[in-house]
Design goal:
279 residues; alpha+beta; Ribosomal Protein S5, domain 2; Alpha-Beta Plaits; 2 domains; 4-stranded mixed β-sheet; 4-stranded antiparallel β-sheet; 9 helices; 12 strands; 28% helix
Length: 279
């Protein structure tokens, strides 16, 4: 049985405060993007002494097998259900470390796939609970539709938002931004002298041509100081006709929304590049 995990972009990302548990309270809007991995499971041969075996192809998958969220998803469900040994094949097409949630999506879709394959009859709420234990962005991919995300990103509220009339151009340069680097330059909004904070839900109700100034990813200010190329990519997206452009998550991917097909592959030929129609 096979599924196709998709990725996401963040439409705005506000870092509101530092929590006592060490995480940050945030607000963002998740929007699904039609770039897909492929994830397949089959039951392992009889007598297999390995609970889960993962094989990967396509783009590079970083980290060891036991830390992969797909493998973690299996072990998480196996603590509550008697699952037989399985083999998992992952075809990676979503770049990692890009702010697109590719690994989180693989983990969440693994939960959905295991639920269907083994007929576990897990409710959506139960799947969301498992996904939140895997990682902050994982829960979104259980729903996989536009949502406001709060808390660490696991508190989700589905919203009515359609960007189906727009094209997206997405650029991933060969720059890695660690979580530590992303948060190192962040001053939470509750610590700012002027901490007036309009909710993202209110901002996106305005015409998209007003988003450029109002719909902000708080990570950009500090990350662009360290990686000026990212700011240059964003400016190129705007000069090429984007009605809105932003970094996704903590980077290093940037995206632009266009009214017409952008055709920027030659412009960004040295980077990972995707363009397509949003749904």
């Amino acid at each position: 049985m096979i599924v196709f995990p998709s990725c996401k972009i963040n439409l705005g990302l506000h870092i509101l405060s530092k929590r006592q548990d060490g995480y940050h309270e945030l607000e963002t809007i998740f929007y699904p993007v039609p770039i897909y991995d492929a994830l397949e499971i089959i039951e392992a041969p009889l007598g297999s002494d390995q609970k889960v075996k993962l094989s990967c192809s396509g783009l590079e998958v970083q980290g060891n097998e036991e830390q992969n969220l797909v493998v973690k998803a299996y072990h998480l469900l196996a603590t509550d259900y008697s699952l037989p040994p399985i083999e998992i094949a992952l075809l990676k097409n979503i770049p990692m470390g890009a702010g697109l949630g590719g690994g989180s999506s693989d983990g969440a879709f693994a939960i959905k796939l295991l639920n269907t394959y083994f007929k576990l009859s897990l409710s959506t709420e139960k799947q969301l609970d498992y996904a939140a234990k895997l990682g902050s962005d994982c829960a979104f991919f259980i729903l996989n539709k536009p949502c406001v995300g709060k808390g660490r990103g696991e508190q989700l509220e589905p919203i009515e938002l359609s960007l189906s009339t727009y094209w997206i151009a997405l650029v991933k340069p060969n720059i890695h931004i660690s979580t530590a680097e992303a948060f190192a330059g962040i001053i939470p909004r509750d610590k700012l002298e002027n901490n007036f904070n309009t909710s993202l839900l209110e901002i996106i109700k305005s015409p998209i041509n007003t988003w450029k100034e109002a719909l902000v990813n708080d990570f950009e200010a500090s990350i662009f100081k360290n990686h000026s190329e990212l700011n240059s990519i964003k400016n190129t997206l705007y000069s090429s006709g984007a009605v809105y452009a932003s970094m996704s998550g903590s980077g290093s991917s940037l995206f632009g929304l266009f009214l017409e097909e952008p055709n920027l592959k030659s412009t960004f030929k040295s980077h990972y590049y995707f363009e397509g129609k949003l749904s």
